[in-house]
Write a structure and sequence with these properties.
Pfam families: Arf. May play a role in apoptosis. May act as a tumor suppressor. This protein is α/β, with parallel strands linked by helices and 172 residues long. The protein has one domain: 3-Layer(aba) Sandwich (Rossmann fold), CATH 3.40.50.300. Helix content is 25%, strand content 23%. A six-stranded mixed β-sheet has the order 2-3-1-4-5-6, sandwiched between helices. Strand 4, helix 2 and strand 5 form a beta-alpha-beta unit.
């Protein structure tokens, strides 16, 4: 994957299976909710933020068997967007371990991180602070990072999150 498809900065969308990555990307690109199935490999699309700014967003499959392949998508990555299901407390330790492993890759040194707390529309979803603590984000003082709540299903917070991702890329 060494060459990029466009001049737009590449953003990698990662997270555990069923976190809502494909739903999120489809909603961003089409404005609609689409039926998705588990991603084998990746989905990619160009997100236009405004007339002059776009991002190429790669949505990479999150099943356990796919995670060893995540490192192959990191070339030319300008920001990592890690999506968590904020209503699934039981899987936060697994998400923390997966995030820590991918961030340890040399290719991501100094690359900004955006954690999207998806499914905020569900009852009992965790707060931003809880997610930040569960993922041990304070340990990543060597990089710019942010956490934002969103709902891919309802389209809430998605545009704002990717404007923030663009700002993080410019700061890094």
């Amino acid at each position: 994957m060494g060459q990029s498809y466009s001049a737009a900065p590449q953003v990698i969308l990662m997270g555990l299976d069923s976190a809502g990555k494909s739903t999120l990307l489809a909603r961003l690109l089409t404005g609609e909710v689409m039926e998705t199935s588990p991603t084998i490999g990746f989905n990619v699309g160009t997100l236009d933020l405004d007339k002059k700014t776009s991002l190429t967003v790669w949505d990479v499959g999150g099943q356990k068997c796919m995670r060893p392949n995540w490192r192959y998508y990191l070339d030319d990555c300008k920001a990592l967007v890690f999506v968590v299901d904020s209503s699934d407390r039981a899987r936060m330790p697994e998400a923390q371990k997966a995030l820590k492993k991918v961030l340890s890759d040399e290719k991501l040194r100094g690359i900004p991180l955006m954690v999207l707390a998806n499914k905020k529309d569900l009852a009992g979803s965790m707060t931003i602070r809880e997610i930040s603590n569960q993922l041990d984000l304070q340990a990543h003082s060597d990089r710019l990072w942010e956490v934002q709540a969103c709902s891919a299903l309802r389209g809430l917070g998605l545009q704002q999150a990717f404007f923030s991702v663009n700002k993080l890329i410019k700061k890094s």
